Amino acid sequence: EKEAALLKEVLSGPLVSIHHIGSTAVPGLAAKPIIDILPVVTEITAVDGLSYAFTALGYEYRGDRKSVV
Question: DSSP string of 6-69?
Answer without folding.
Answer: HHHHHTTTTEEEEEEESGGGSTTS---S--EEEEEES-HHHHHTTHHHHHHTT----TT-----
